Amino acid sequence: MTPPKDFTAAVGSDMRASQRRVLFVTRRTSPQVKVYDEERVQTFSEVLIRALLAVECLLIGLVLMSLFFNAPLEGIANPTNTPNPAKAPWYFLGLQEMLHYFPPVVAGVLIPGLLIIALIVIPYFDINIEAEGFFLKNRQQRLMLSMIVAGSLSIFLWFFDVYVALAPTVIIAALMLLAAFSSPQSPGRLRRYLALRPIFWWIMTWFLFELIVLTAVGTFFRGPGWSWVWPWRS
Known about the structure:
Elements: H1 46-68, H2 93-99, H3 104-125, H4 139-159, H5 163-180, H6 189-195, H7 199-220
Helix pairs in contact: 2-3, 2-7, 3-7, 4-5, 5-6, 5-7
């Protein structure tokens, strides 16, 4: 009769590298261990759920607007009577507002082309997988670089009297200055939120802010001859 043996089971951090199995074999039983490694794991991204909710909310909002408000359509086009001002569709009014300040080559080709190239290149220029705050590392250098870029852009817009585009730039620069002197442990909720925003968030927010302001100005504040008018005046 064989003497009894002591079995000790240990738990490691890597079960694939250091495997421990305790197996008791009796008569008419053969030990068999099956190992199956799946190469693919089925997942459902959380971003898809957010996108689906956003599309549903947008669809409900458009349906409600169509039920309670009529579309601002004008009469049949008359080739002998050109309206003043002749406005583009709303999604091009931001570009038409830029044409009021700059030559067509600059406003229609150079500026949109540079913005699109910047949005494509910036994610590869600063790889930030964890999306950490822009000012959490090298705060002084990044703050100085941000203020130089914002100041140069503000001077350029001031020189060409583009005050409608200057206001969003100044506001974003002020928020970046606030974020630079904030931390994730700041007492205010806004300061904590701004301190954790990455660089691509700041650039995209400035771009959307400029687009919204230029589109709103071209829609509501431009009258005959593309002159400035207040919306409540005919």
